[in-house]
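haha ok so turns out i had the wrong file open the whole time. this is the CORRECT one, sorry everyone. sequence first:
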Amino acid sequence: LSGSLDVDHGSVDAFSLDLVLVGSDAGIVDGNIGKVRNLELASTGDKSIDGILEVNGSTVFNNVSSFSAGTVRALGDVDLNDSSYTGNGVLEIAGSAGQIITSSGGGMARNLVINKDAGTAAFANNINLEGSVTHIAGDTDFSGTTVYLRGAGLVLDTNEITFDNVVFSSNANFSLLSDL
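then structure:
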């Protein structure tokens, strides 16, 4: 999809949909389409979600330029392949089973929320975090990884998360809302 996806009226069954957001055009995806099977953000254009888009399977961020608004609620594994992108969009790790978060090639996440009912969010690689990091509920596993906290205006509410290694970048400017 290189543009927008709206629901004007009625209901949509998108559970079997593998949604790939591509292209250089800006686009908005209506979270009311329902839960999708898989999502890949691979766009040089500004993409946003109107509300919350739930992803039952895999969520991939690959060559994202800007994720400006809304929430992607990942219920399955997550693969973060971008070293940097802009925007206020939120990536929420929210599955009720174990999830593996990979961040190959210096992958990063902006505005990360961990809000799991059960299971563990296991981070398999070093990861760069920008924007905000919020832990609401659920187990996390950062064993053997280094978390790089980058950028101005970083807000950390990491209550109950244990990190192995944390590195603050030279431009890190942050507010700490709970113990780190």
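DSSP finds no helices and 17 strands in the chain.
again sry for the mixup
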